[in-house]
Design goal:
The protein is mostly helical and about 400 residues long. The chain is built from 17 helices and 2 strands. A two-stranded parallel sheet has the order 1-2. Helix 5 packs antiparallel against helix 6 and helix 5 runs antiparallel to helix 14. It is globular, with a radius of gyration of 21 Å.
């Protein structure tokens, strides 16, 4: 490797991610097909830089080295804003939809493992290869895959950590790229109309979900609300780190953002009941959108795509089957979740978190609503399932396969 590379610190890395993000916006404007099929700009920009790094790697050159220490705080901040939107009063309205969506996601996670085990059997591999390359890394993402890797090693699967990283990275790419086009085809195929579109002028989705009315703010009020939101989010992230440690002490393996998201949900519901905090949900939504975009750009441009290029044939076959399966499964999700526009947007979220992470799912759904209009029910149901409930369900599914599937 050449020694002449750019070494970026944490702040410079986020700034570089911002450049990747705007490169994604430039791509969607320059190439109409990308905009037509609603590919998320952070995914496109991050992949562009990752491909550039791969090109340099193939010629013995490393262009840049990133310090991704702010990547996790950006992710946790985004999911904290999701928690703030998780009102119990709204959950009562859509509780049945959340339960059905969770049932669909859990059933599909089991299907992912069965497909993976089938591929492992085809190539004469340990059956736990299929589980690790299935729901452990696709539904669970890299954090869950790495957390469970020692259990897979103990079950007899060699190289579990490398398999987890490779499968999860491939899933993240596919989840971000496939979701928008798949749902766009669905919307056009069935002529789906967004009946929410005429209810309100374009505003952040959270405001439509919460029912809050946005009033014109003075500059001082806007500054105070932004400051209040930032401080409350930071406090929720601080308190959430202690909640996360509590889960670890109980032996539960959960993503790092769960604690902060729970604290955010607690703050939201306390505010719903008391009115003490007067949380400006639209401002929190804006902060979350910015954190999500930067997180995705940094995460994707840091992917080592040359490791994916050298992945074994079994992983490649498994990935192709899993991507095809989840793309086909969008149709049942659409029909069972209501056969309307919100259900279609939920399908995009379903692809995002069943192949990658909930951040992917949110990016896909936000790209769709920017094109077709608000989808309040989708933005309530999909994040609750994808960012919280499926992690509990998937942990039980993975543990069940490790303990009860014949090795």
């Amino acid at each position: 490797m050449t020694s002449q590379m750019i070494e970026l610190d944490a702040v410079q890395t986020v700034a570089f991610g911002g450049l990747a993000l705007f490169a994604g916006y430039a791509l969607t404007r320059a190439i109409p097909v990308l905009r037509r099929y609603n590919l998320p700009e952070p995914v496109l920009g991050g992949l562009l830089f990752a491909l550039l790094a791969w090109w340099g790697q193939s010629r013995g050159t490393q262009f840049y080295q990133l310090d991704t220490s702010l990547q996790s705080p950006l992710m946790i901040a985004f999911f904290t804003t999701i928690g703030v939107n998780a009102s119990l009063s709204l959950l009562k309205v859509s509780g049945r939809q959340v339960a059905l969506f969770l049932l669909l996601a859990s059933g599909f996670a089991v299907m992912q493992n069965l497909v993976g085990i089938g591929v492992a059997s085809l190539f004469g591999l340990h059956p736990m290869f299929g589980v690790l390359a299935g729901s452990a890394t696709l539904t669970g993402g890299p954090a869950t895959g790495l957390a469970f890797a020692p259990m897979f090693e103990a079950a007899g699967l060699q190289g579990a950590e490398s398999i987890a990283v490779t499968a999860a990275m491939a899933g993240i790419i596919c989840g971000g790229v496939i979701g928008g086009p798949a749902v766009t085809v669905l919307i056009r195929r069935f002529g789906i109309v967004n009946h929410n579109a005429g209810r309100q002028a374009p505003t952040p989705v959270a405001d439509v979900v919460s029912g809050n009315v946005i009033h014109e703010e003075t500059d001082s009020a806007r500054e105070f609300n932004a400051l209040k939101c930032i401080v409350l989010l930071l406090l929720a992230m601080w308190a959430g780190s202690w909640v996360g440690r509590g889960f670890q002490a109980l032996g539960l393996t959960l993503p790092a953002y769960i604690g902060a998201m729970l604290v955010g949900a607690a703050l939201r519901n306390i505010d719903d009941y008391t009115g003490w905090l007067r949380l400006p949900v639209h401002t929190i939504e804006l902060i979350g959108n910015v954190c999500l975009a930067l997180f995705l750009a940094v995460a994707l441009m840091n992917l080592r795509l040359w490791e994916l290029a050298g992945m074994g044939l079994p992983l490649l076959v498994n990935l192709v089957l899993q991507v095809g399966l989840v793309a086909l499964f969008v149709a049942p999700v659409f029909w069972l979740m209501g056969r309307d526009y919100d259900a279609a947007v939920m399908g995009g979220g379903f692809i995002g978190f069943m192949l990658g992470t909930t951040a992917n799912a949110m990016a896909v759904m936000r790209t769709l609503v920017q094109r077709y209009g608000i989808a309040p029910r989708a933005f309530l149901v999909a994040p609750l399932v994808g960012a919280f409930f499926i992690d509990f369900s998937n942990a039980l599914i993975i543990t069940g396969f490790i303990n009860f599937w014949p090795h």
